[in-house]
Amino acid sequence: MKNARLTVEKGLSLAVTDDRLFGSFIEHLGRAVYNGIYEPGHPTADENGFRKDVISLVRELGIPIVRYPGGNYVSNFFWEDAVGPTDRRKPRRDLAWRTIESNRFGISEFVKWCDRIDAEVMMAVNLGTRGISDALNLLEYCNMDGGTYYSDLRISHGDPSPYGIRTWCLGNEMDGPWQVGHMPAYEYGRLAAETAKAMKYMDDSIELVLCGSSGVDMPTFPEWERISLMEAYEHVDYISLHQYYGNEAEDTEDFLAKTLDLEQFIHTVICTCDYIQAVKRSSKKLYLSFDEWNVWYHTRKSDDEKMASAPWEEHPHLLEDHYFFEDALLVGLMLITFLKHADRIKIACLAQLVNVIAPIMTEDNGPAWRQTIFYPFLHVSRYGRGEALLCPLTSDRHDTSCHSDVSDVDATAVYNEEKKEVAIFAVNRNIKDPVLFSADLARFNKLKIKEHIVMESKDLRAVNSATKERVCPHMTSEHSFDEDIFEATLQPCSWNVIVFEEE
Fold first, then answer.
1. 243: which DSSP letter?
2. What fold is seen in the domain 2-8+389-502?
3. CA-CA distance, 165 to 500, in Å (whole number)?
4. pTM reported for the whole predicted model
5. Which residues are catalytic?
């Protein structure tokens, strides 16, 4: 039997997790908005046209913040088209996804929707085709009391109170040649710095996110971070990271090892931030916003073909990946990695939330349902709030086709002092062998097991659908807990959550 052991000590706190670590993302792309969160005429639609079945599932996930309106979409976003009476709003061609945007759903509707799910808005400004003045106008519209043109415009549109949006993204993926308005790192750094300065002159309560690299494989990484931060470091609060993974090679063993690359990505960005801090002799520590992350590869080829052959449709089916069970395992592994870096990663947005590479899917005029990836996110959102602990882990290891020295088990733990709960999250990513997993919790007061949740499937390509949930978690009692030592056999390719409570 292979073995893994986790030491969980109450006093070894890495950081208190920021609730925004469990955020998500809605972009004007595909059916994320239209027939996703918004479908007037749907049997569950409320007076605003919001689907209440979707709201229920989003609330189940406990999403605290949602990034909006993009994504690539924001780089040609004219925000003025998305406010005011809907019958006066201008349709536009979205250059990012080659669709028609009607603007029937806009900023005020999104703010109302976020109120319904008890979430903050994370707003992105267009630094692709626009710049400082438009960012300031949008900020004034959203956050300022009346007495000036754009704040009075919001009031005339029926919203007398400011939206009070705290977190703002300075563009999106400006390092990417695919981005409308793409520019070199120095040019972006200068624009971002001046935009940040001006926005904080207007509202010094806001926090700003600088665009980092669009992925670890970008040829400009990490020079992009170094150059742009040299210009903007003192004026921003976070730098973004984006990363998607796929199993195009159909090599599950190596696919589940890709969080080793994620670790290196995070480590490099942290080191780059700290290097710039040292160069500038600054007392300010920069934090990370992992504001796009997920598995994404199932529909890339067909989506590219659709956008080329049938452009300029309204809310077509795009990026509607149907997730395998193995995808849920990688999502769980990514979440474990984020918890291990909770001292620096303060914001993370699962991209996206509904229909578009999402944990929640809908049928037009039909039901909403949970994808396989819904569950690990649900568990970590529910039990991952509190003190992320430094947990030494020993595990048997294996090599894959592209990675060496991969631990069979990856695991971490969070202590919630208010609830007096300890949660362990563990993935056995060995695709063949079970692992005897033990956890030493001797430094806690007397504990008892509250829940032991397992998600497993012999079919790594099992998917859920609107009619059948083939992959879902279940409770188990197949464990022992004696003299502060927990033991259980983790089956190959399994997601495991063990929750203890102090007596």
1. E
2. Immunoglobulin-like (2.60.40)
3. 36
4. 0.97
5. 173, 292
